[in-house]
User: Fold this.
Amino acid sequence: MITAFLAGFFVFNAIPHLVQGISGKTHMTPFKRVSSPSLNVVWAFVNLFFGVLLLGFDPITGEVNHPAGANFWAFFIGGLIVSLVAAQLFGKPNARLPWHKD
Assistant:
C-alpha cells in the first residue's frame, strides 16, 4: 500500500509541472524557485517515470513489473518530446505557428 501511495504522490505531483511547462509558464521546482517551462516538463516526466515504476513494484516479491514494451517507451518519449516543444514555443511572448497570419 505504501508503494501505491508513493506512486500516486509522484504521478499527481507531475500534473502541475507538466501543465505549467507545456503552457510555457515558469513554476517552482526543487531546483529553483522560478524554473523554466522546459525544466518543469523534465521534472514532470521524472515524476511520471518513478510513479509508473512504483505502480509496477510488488513489495512481497520485490519484483518490478513495469511496462517494458516498445510501445510504452515510444508513447513516453513521444509525450516528452511534444511537451518540450510546447514548453519552448509557448514560453515565447509572441509565439505563433507558421500558418498564423496575424
